[in-house]
Amino acid sequence: MRDAAPTTIYLKDYTPFGYIVDSVHLTFDLAPHATRVKSRIAFRPNPEASDKTFFLHGEELKLIRASIDGAEVTPDVTDKGLTASVPDAPFVWEAEVEIDPGNNTALEGLYMSNGMYCTQCEAEGFRKITYYPDRPDVMSTFTVRINGNLPVLLSNGNPTGKGKGWAEWTDPWPKPAYLFALVAGDLVAHSDGFTTKSGRHVDLNLWVRPGDEGKCAFGMEALKKSMKWDEDVYGREYDLDVFNIVAVDDFNMGAMENKGLNIFNSSAVLASPETSTDANFERIEAIIAHEYFHNWTGNRITCRDWFQLCLKEGLTVFRDAQFTSDMRSAPVKRINDVIELRARQFPEDNGPLAHPVRPESFQEINNFYTATVYEKGAEVIGMLKTLVGDEAYAKALDLYFERHDGQACTIEDWLKVFEDTTGRDLSQFKRWYSQAGTPRVKVEEDWADGTYTLTLSQSTPPTPGQPEKLPQVIPVAVGLLGPNGDEVRGTEVLELTDARQSFTFEGLAAKPVPSILRGFSAPVILEQDSTPAQRAFMLAHDTDPFNRWEAGRALATETLLGMITRDAAPGSDYLDGLLAVMRDDALDPAYRALMLGLPTQSELAGMLHDKGVTPDPMAIWTAVETLRQATAQHMQDLLPRLHSQSLVDGPYRPDAEQSGKRALGSAALALISRLDGGTQAATEYARADNMTLQLSALSCLLKSGKGEAELAAFYEQWRHDRLVMDKWFGLQVALASPDRAPEIARRLTEHPDFNWKNPNRFRALMGGLAMNHAGFHHASGASYELLADWLIRLDPVNPQTTARMCSAFQTWKRYDADRQDLIRAQLIRIAETPDLSRDTTEMISRILA
Ligand code: ARG
Ligand code: ZN
Description:
- Residues 36-179 form the Aminopeptidase N-like N-terminal domain.
- The chain has 849 residues and is α+β, with helices and mostly antiparallel strands.
- The protein contains 27 helices and 31 strands.
- The radius of gyration is 27 Å and the shape is globular.
- The relative contact order is 0.07.
């Protein structure tokens, strides 16, 4: 571990910067190993700030010269930045620094990817480009001149000059440095245009490396739809003459909303039917929308400090989810989001990495781009909208944009617009931002003389640093069904604000069956003692599509838990209820495909742990396999009909309708493969003409212990395509049988195409291993050791990606003592690695704590 104690930054310590920046001029002389960056920055004292220390962040910079108002100065330089004495009046700071983008493997600041220059500055990467107050509350206009002998030279804002070997860009909108971007390289554009509602013409370009032109059309359409949707639904118009998107192969995250110049991981933008699955298309559409929506929620209104990250991320995730619901199927989107929340956010909220939606301290902010900040942050906004109603939500958002345009804001500012719009006191609601952990809501029922009483109690388990929790405001959407399955009370929202609270429904003819937490109206764990027969009743009758799916999910879960803990047989309520749903051709195929899903093995392990049972990964794996087999047998006659859904009419379209059909067909093929050993999957593989069907057939073959030949053929067919090769690496590991997973993963790390410095490739392989629950938890500890080896190897190269991947270990305390010992040994081995990055040090120490 590093010798220097890591510094912790606290929300409560916020103070404004001593100086205001009026303008920034940057000149880049590009060279792979010696790029020169000249800055000319107009500062003036900030009357609101008491601390007038002139400190500029700067890391890994070689300072060539600096001057103030034209006079050379010699600042005090450390490895974190510099301080200088400055006049108590407006002044111009100039500096020249040299940087080495060609050796920047951390992919933060200015770096190179396949010969192309690009940047990633969020959260604190700009300080690796030049000396600057690199904090989001310092906003300025930027003018950027790029000198470099490359065909395409891009930065933020509008183009304001261009010649041979140079280009100038001016961004008229004041912005924080984290939204700065520069791209230079040999790129080609897929171009289009958009006319905003007030008649402004915007040039749209999607820039890619030559050869990728054929993968741009879908992304461009998604962009145009997003621009239109934000005008129609939020009244938000685009505000520059040009909007550029660039695809980059080496990128730590999904994408980045730099003003007017979004930079995307190529996996989050490039798409074609032959190389991308339906799920890829949907994800790409959502990410393009997300980054575009940031133009208002993030860029025009930004964050005061990084503790407020959810201000832009929670809101923008919420907005992109609304967009996807409008473009596709709202119930399917909601169910998918809840599946994701349970798979990624619940483990975080219920383990050593738990933190509030608005964290109160951090060592490395990059470690807080989490499912809690993003996805739970979006759930919190959804609850707010449910509580105040759609109309008040729209009014509050209008006020937010009007009041705070051009500002760097806080969660307090955000809640205030809702308080001012509705007159509601949101102080208790604010606990959603400050208390970590997933609330449990327990249900009790009472029935007497036509009155039905629902008593709800809430409690939130302790999380690191928060032993006691106060009650939160939980909107619980409830409907009541009568004994014949008719809805006797439509959905109403109960506001649970106390630790325990009763709600009565009067004038009922018979004891109703409650449908609670419809639409998953709050990110909580509902504890309701229902019998399998009651669940089956809801599965057959609930009018709320989410809760109908949830009833099936609960039946599946309870069956699996019974099989694991009591050696019970697969439940007939589940099998019969599922069969009835699958037979109902009036139901959306996408929805039926979701019904066929099961909780993940990791989720089951978490539930067992919650019940005080130590999860045995192999027992969980066996139960899931057994239930799958029983399901296949139970639905045998129906499977060919379900499978034929994937043979759609007409050319491939990645829309909701066709992809829903393929999802159902693929789910059916997986069950068929359990009965025929993969015979039909081999036929389907041979005739697949799109990646969705090709990959689903290949998955079935691998799961059947076959597919060697197909795997080799797939490699030959796609070895030239990085994004498809990521799938090839990931699939083999994720679907390997538990006993073979560590060895298959290890062998693949020796493959010549395992370019481990590429985050997508590293994540494909190591993430695939972590996803293979029983394989990752192989009793030998071989997978733990393999992952630790590679984390140790990657850390000095790319701390961010290393630190993120550490979360594979976050659930370690659920497992038995032998496995805990094996994992602890690996965590300690990582922690004791000399010169471990701040990112990984923080993650490992939190996981170990
Ligand atoms: N703001 C980006 C988004 O759209 C994510 C950037 C995250 N970058 C990072 N280094 N953690 O969500
Ligand atoms: Zn975002």
